[in-house]
Write a structure and sequence with these properties.
mainly alpha, 19 helices
């Protein structure tokens, strides 16, 4: 019997066992299914945000990039780490304390209905892109791990079935408890792989000697322009505050202090993974100089012994599971909360509302699988998608810290122009003098927000807070 197959099957069985174990809690109502009854402690918050961050882009995507540019690719995870910590210090507690559960709901409460609709549409697009990338990486992992059972597309389909199934069954409870297993597995697998792969290749000096000349592969500031690295940090800090995944986790905390501490702890857990995966990508350049860069990390790990390779590749797949489940749940929340319940059936019963969430997750899962078959490079696509949160974060920060500059139409116009700005960036190469789309997005969104403050004289209400639990 194939040892790697046994390990993966056992891991899948464990995830579904956890999901069915918590199903009775999730079935109690929408608050339990979508927000774990707002009872998550700091450890569950930390592993949830770590699981969300350490997905396809943070493992397979970083190694893919490191295969081309070296150790500097690891700054992607460092940027995510910074985003989680800033979210904890600046926004997680405030979001938990506000009487909202999504950013679009926040927009309508303090701005207008148009702002809610356009932000919901933008967030669903963002999460669809991210979910599709988890399938892409999942397919690469399974195809490398078990080539006799899966090709690339078959691996994506199996990944989709598992991701969607776990989320449908247990909601945020399922994601939270599964992430304890997944995060432990990720750390054990990747740490062991780094040590074993370095030894297998003859040590760091031997690796350096076999790398192509012309680039200092182990220099964390070589290979990628500093402006791009700074752009990653801005993107990750931006999206961590308003993307539905982090927002949903913050809203699931038992109180504001727990949300804050959990995000800071999660940020510390996220940081090392990127540079470890970058190291594996560099080793892939030595061992497999002519393969597709996306396969760099899986191929390196498969060169290890069967138990080590099976455990590590299960860990990489666990990274995709942990991210995809939270993102799928967030997409379901956005549609059900901000579109279905708000505009289609405001008087929906709580039991029926949970069913709508599950149907939405199923639909989004199928649609994003189609996206995955047409996706480009993992890291490039991920960063472009996350840049769409700039307008949302701009509005959120002005609302919380400078409400005097906010007007009723600010959310709508800032979000609309922010989304259109991404299209303009693609078709006007002259703008690329800014090095990264995130710089253009922030300049554009701040300018629009301040212009609206000049022409629209209708103010918004001051944000209300709920009582601390």
């Amino acid at each position: 019997m194939n040892i790697q197959l046994i390990i993966v099957v056992l891991y899948i069985a464990m995830l579904f066992a956890i999901s069915f174990y918590v199903k009775s809690r999730a079935d109690k109502g929408s608050a339990e299914y979508l927000f774990a009854g707002r009872k998550l402690g700091p450890v569950l918050i930390a592993v949830n945000i770590t699981g969300l961050a350490v997905g396809a882009a943070s493992t397979v995507g970083v190694a893919e990039n490191a295969y081309k540019v070296g150790m500097a690719a690891g700054w992607y995870n460092a940027a995510w780490s910074a985003g989680a910590i800033i979210m904890g210090l600046v926004a997680a507690g405030k979001l938990r304390a506000m009487k909202v559960s999504t950013i679009p709901e926040f927009f309508e409460k303090y701005y207008d209905t148009k702002g809610r609709v356009i932000s919901a549409v933008g967030l669903v697009i963002i999460m669809s892109v991210i979910t599709a990338l988890q399938y892409l990486a999942g397919g690469a992992i399974l195809a490398s791990l078990l080539p006799e059972y899966f090709d690339f597309h078959g691996g994506m389909i199996v990944s989709a079935v598992v991701f969607i199934g776990i989320t449908l069954i247990g909601g945020l409870w399922s994601s939270g408890l599964s992430n304890i297993v997944s995060v432990v597995l990720i750390y054990v697998g990747i740490l062991y792989s780094c040590v074993a792969a370095v030894n297998h290749t003859g040590g760091i000096e031997a690796i350096k000697a076999q790398l192509p000349v012309g680039l200092d592969w182990f220099d964390p500031f070589a290979g990628i322009p500093l402006a791009v690295i700074i752009g990653w940090f801005i993107v990750m800090i931006t999206q961590a505050i308003t993307a539905q995944g982090p927002v949903q986790i913050a809203c699931g905390a038992r109180d504001a202090k727990t949300a804050r501490n959990g995000f800071i702890l999660g940020g510390l857990l996220i940081f090392p993974v990127g540079f470890l995966c970058a190291l594996l990508g560099i080793i892939g350049k030595v061992q497999f100089p002519d393969i597709s860069a996306t396969l760099a990390l899986p191929k390196v790990v498969m060169a290890l012994d069967p138990i080590a390779s099976g455990t590590t590749l299960a860990a990489l797949w666990a990274a995709d599971v942990s991210t995809a489940c939270t993102i799928l749940l967030g997409a379901g929340t956005l549609f059900s909360q901000d579109i279905y319940k708000r505009f289609i059936n405001p008087s929906v019963s709580d039991d029926h509302f949970v069913k709508i969430n599950r149907l939405t997750i199923l639909a989004v899962g199928i649609i994003t699988l189609w996206f995955a078959f047409n996706a480009a490079g993992i890291l490039k696509t991920m960063v472009a998608g996350l840049s769409m949160t700039t307008a949302l974060t701009c509005v959120f920060l002005f609302t919380v810290f400078a409400p005097g500059l906010c007007r009723r139409s600010s959310a709508f116009w800032t979000t609309l122009v922010g989304l259109l700005g991404l299209v303009v960036w693609e078709f006007v190469p002259a703008l690329h003098v800014l090095q990264h789309v995130i710089y253009f997005e922030w300049l554009l969104c701040i300018a629009v927000f301040l212009l609206v403050a000049v022409f629209d004289k209708t103010p918004i209400k001051q944000p209300e807070m709920v009582e601390e639990d």
